[in-house]
Amino acid sequence: MKTSFLMTPGPTQVPPRVSLATAQEIIHHRQPEFGELLREITEKLKYVFQTQGDVLIFPGAGTGALEGAVVNFFSPGDKVVFGVMGEFGSRWAKIAEIFGLQVVRLGTEWGKAVTAQDLELLLTSEEGKGVKGVFITHNETSTGVYTNLEEIGKVCQKHKLLFLVDAVSSLAAIDLQTDQWGVDVVVTASQKALMTPPGLCFFSVSEKAWAFNREATCPRYYWDLAQAKKYLERKMPQNPYTPAVTLLFGLNQALDMIQREGLEQVFARHLRLSQMLRRGVEAMGLELLVKDEAIASPSVTAIVVPPGVEASNITSFMRQSGIIIAGGQAELKGKIVRVGHMGYFDAYDIANTLTTLGRAFQEQNVSVDLGQGLQKAWEVYNHG
Ligand SMILES: Cc1ncc(COP(=O)(O)O)c(C=O)c1O
User: Fold this and answer.
1) How many Å apart are CA 129 and CA 79, to the nearest integer?
2) What is the mean pLDDT of each run of 10 residues along the chain (384 residues)?
3) Domain ranges of the chain
4) Which residues line ligand 1 (CB under 6 A)?
5) How far is the CA of 168 from the centre of ligand 1 (A)?
């Protein structure tokens, strides 16, 4: 019998030690043991977020955190810029509109990245007058593109804007120097490179962001970050509402694994293995959606499905072979398939995925050179 192996852009494979930890006997969230656990996890998260600022944990999906980042720092009528490079940037902008913010979309063709120059140009135009904040998706999971946050951070600092980043598919996979690059708010979720089952989401919050928070009047109750900070700062740290205790047991293990490997090594592994897949896909004769290496995501790769081939036939062949990948979303539906490579995976997972992908395309009468693909992939793994 085939088991399912997740090579999707989330949720991702969960290491056995993380799963085992979640099976531990439950503790009550108002007991001292829980306070210790929360304190420990919060410190470990600061390492992964690369911040000295606050890190807050909520039970919730990544989309909840996107909403939380809107309602905690702005008021209805505030003018804000959203970088829209695909489905997730688009979703975040829609959330802001629902809460009455005045949204300016800094858009680009799907498969391309929004740049600091684009932002600078917008901010110095008539349309950019009165902007208070900039929202950017670090890694656009729908296309496999990532953005240069460091440069965008400089523009935000120059114009004194709040800088908010969706790192749902990048934190712990792609370098994100929160404090160093002047990112005021980072949001992410547990089910991707953090190697933990779905159900937790996270916020990092800078001092500047807390100043915005004090002025922000968007309605909020569950996502009240100031309330969460108060509870966290109690002698025995707590959450305002019932936390996902068992997921936190698992997360604690996952964070230890990240710490043991070291963040730099974690980023290097993601980059090298993504290169292994990208070069292998090309050598097989298939096409990558993102050709520019400078913006090619180390955590998600999109492969173009040639005209006449049903993308769903590729994903279902993969599924029947035990490997789950994803199709395209919105305007890329039917045009690409997406492989996620985040968190708990290694070179053999890439090689296995590449082989099965090649077979899936062959099954659809697409000419694919499996041997060339695998040879190239291992060459890249061995020699970079
Ligand atoms: C970049 C990005 N943002 C937000 C989300 C939404 O997360 P969730 O599905 O947990 O709501 C995702 C999910 O894939 C994502 O990749």
Assistant:
1) 9
2) 86 98 97 98 98 98 98 98 97 98 96 96 97 98 97 98 98 98 98 98 98 98 98 97 98 98 98 98 98 97 97 97 97 97 98 98 97 98 91
3) 5-11+262-383, 16-259
4) 10, 61-63, 66, 88, 137, 141, 166, 168-169, 189
5) 6
